[in-house]
Amino acid sequence: MGNSSRHDAWQAGESYDLYMGRWSRQIAPLFLDLLGAEKDLDWLDVGCGTGALSQAILDTSKPRRVVGVDPSEGFVAWALEIVTDPRVTFLVGGAEAFPVEADEFDRVVSALVLNFVPDKVKALKEMKRAARPAGRVCFYVWDYPNAGVEFMRAFWSAAVSLDPGASELGKDGRFPFCTPSDLRALVDEAGLVVIRIEAVETPTHFSDFDDYWRPFTLGAGPAPGYCASLSPEKREELRATLQERLPTQDDGSIHLSARAWAVEASVQ
User: Fold this and answer.
1) What Cα–Cα distance (Å) separates residue 192 from each residue in 31, 65, 87?
2) pTM, full prediction
């Protein structure tokens, strides 16, 4: 395992929900609004995680069925606990090869996953394989290169100020492709046709500093994994630095925002 990924810990579904899943749940309906898909479609949710996008599809898009696929058994187990609609099925499988038939789905979607897939073009080609000839492949990724996820940027900025070695783990350097031009190039290389690439934004409001800080202590994700790797003394130093730097309202709440790039592409 390379240095850039040694702190990634993706098994704990409940911990991930507290860290990133809650924001995934906020932005998923905005993504679906952008797509404006008709009802009674078959959906495949690639890298479904704890089921945020799958649940949003069930809530807003009136699907015939939804199949969610994720390589993490822990995430799939947690999704099965919290998403109980009979129209949904969750399977264990990777983004570069998943256990579904070709031409099986009207919409093949993915939320906040592509940046963690080693072979992104292969993953997009696999998504294309699963889509029907008149189908769509649609996904979104956080806008890391332009500091689009403010609560993460604040964390890594504080971490690097105390530990310059943390810079290699920050999102900006690891995921430089999360820009409209690079996303378009990936989609083109996979043999898909871009329909649109648009920004989708959501507020990330924390009730107080503990609401912000606690998810970073649970170990699910790169930043929490890094935090968990620190000694108690270093962790406390990081906590104090963040508490001093974050923009706190009079009532103790912290108001930030997160931006993603959403891509809709056609199979033909």
Assistant:
1) 19, 24, 28
2) 0.85
